[in-house]
Input
Amino acid sequence: MTVIAISSEGPTLNDAVDPRYGRAGGFIIAKVPEDGGEPTISYLDNGEAQMLPQGAGIVTTEHLANAGVTVVLSGYVGPKAFEALEAAGIGVVQDMDKMSTGEALKQFLDGRCSVASSPNHASGQ
Amino acid sequence: MRIGIASGKGGAGKTMLAASLHSVWPTQHILVDCDVEAPNLHFFAHPHIDQTWTVTLPVPQAVTEACSHCGVCRDICRYGAIAKFGQNIAVFPDLCHGCGGCFAVCQEKALVTGTRELGRIEQGSCGDTAYFSGCTRVGEVMTPPLLRKLLALLPEQTPADVIVDCPPGVSCPAVTVARRVDAMVLVADPTPFGYADFCLAYEAFHALGLPLACVLNRCAMPGNEGGDEKLKTFCQTHGIPVAGEVPFTREAAHALAQGRLLPELSPDWRTRFEQLCANLQRIFGEVQHG
Output
C-alpha cells in the first residue's frame, strides 16, 4: 500500500501545504488502497519537532517511518532530512507548496510529480 | 590571575579592551583569544604563531552488521544524532555532542567511531607575551570542547597574569570560559541594546561567583543621552566597580578599523588605559588564580 504524507498547515485537505518539511506543523496521511480506491485521510501532528534547535527533519522522518509512510510531498527538504528519508526508504517530492494538500495529493495520484534525487534546501534554514 | 574580558552583547569592545590592556599591562602576561567563532585579537596583537593543532570530537560514524537494531543507542542520545527508521539505525555525526553514551550502551559494539573536526588552536607569541587562540571550523556549531582544550594549554602555575578575550553573549561558550577565569571585566555599550545584554551578563557571571568590574565603551554617544547614567546606576546598585570609560570618538573608530591600538594614539589615550589598568589591578588586587 502507498502511504503518502503531505506537510500541512492544518488537519484538512483544504489547508495549505506547509513549505517546511522538518518543521511542518503536521502531516496529512493518505493511505491509498492497492486496488486504487479512495484514499483514507488522517492527520499526524508534528509539534514536537518544531521545538528542536536542530535535527527536526530527522525526528520528523522517524515519526513518518513509524506511521508506515512510503512517500512525502513537501515544499523544501534540507540535506540531513533528505539523508534521513533515504535511510528510511521514503521517497520525497519537493516544491509542492503554494497549493492545498488536496491539490498536492491529486497531482501525485495523477502521476504529475517526480520523486527527488537530491535536497533542494540548505541545512537549518 | 586570569582576567576575562566579556560582554553580554557582541561588538561591545572586548577585543579592543583586551588588546589595549595587553599594550599597557605593566607585568609579564599571557594573551588568549577565546572568541573562537570570530577570533580577531590577532589583528591588533600581531602574534607570531609557532604551533597549530586540530581539535576533533569522537563521534559515531556508522553501524556495522553486528547491529541488533535494539535502539538503545538512539534512546540514550539527547541530541537526536541516532535515529531508528523501522529496523534501520542511522547515525548523524553532525548532531553529536561527543558524550560517548551510545558507545557505552551498545552490547554488540556495532558503532564505528569516527571524528568530527571542531576547529584549530594556535600557540605563539607577541614579543615577550605568550599568545593562544582558537578558531572554530566553518559549519561547526559546538565550541565548548574546543575552548576547554584551548584553556587547558595555559600553564596552571605561572606568576604571569592571563588576559582572556571571551566569547560574546552568556550562552555555553561564554560560560565555559567564565568557569575558567578568576575575575571578569564586563565591557558595556551604554545603548538600550547594550544595557539589556549587560544586565544578562551580570546575572550570568555574578551567579558564578566571579569578582566583576565594568568598563563603559562609547561613552557620551550622540543620540544616546542618559544611556551612560543608566548603566552607571545599575553598576552602583549592584556593587560593580566601574574601572574606566572609553569615549565615543571618530578617532578611536578610525584607529581600530586600521588595526591600531588605542593606547598608541596619543599620550592622553595611553594615560587613560594605564589608569584603567591600575584601577583593574586595584579592584581585583586580592584575587588569586585557582
